[in-house]
Design brief:
The chain is α/β, with parallel strands linked by helices and 99 residues long. It has a single domain, classed as HesB-like domain (Hypothetical Protein Aq_1857, Chain: A). It contains 2 helices and 7 strands, in the order βαββββαββ. The chain is globular.
Length: 99
């Protein structure tokens, strides 16, 4: 899983604003099937890791990842949509550096 520097910065700010301790809390990535087909990844701030989640640490940021996310999207990239300044998760593109 790749997390861009801009995404790390935005997620750290979000955790700080929410008052979540980054040493135990983090960002949850949870998958869901869309009504019209397709797959969406929900991004949530979380106080702790759930039993079925994988912990991924990137640049001191803790990600709590639902295993379904990486099954549905084998090489996800967590990045920022610059137009809306929001977090998006997308599949890696062939031009992305390997992670």
């Amino acid at each position: 899983m790749e997390v861009t520097d801009d995404a790390v910065e935005l997620l750290r700010r979000s955790l700080d604003l929410a008052g979540i301790d980054p040493s135990s809390g983090g960002v949850r990535l949870r998958g869901s099937r869309a009504l019209g087909g397709g797959y969406d990844v929900q991004v949530e701030l979380a106080d702790e890791l759930l039993d079925d989640e994988e912990l991924i640490e990137v640049s001191g940021l803790r990600l709590f990842v639902d295993p379904e996310v990486t099954r549905a999207m084998p090489k996800p990239v967590v990045t920022v949509d610059p137009q809306h300044d929001t977090i998006v998760i997308r599949p890696a593109e062939p031009s992305d550096p390997p992670t």
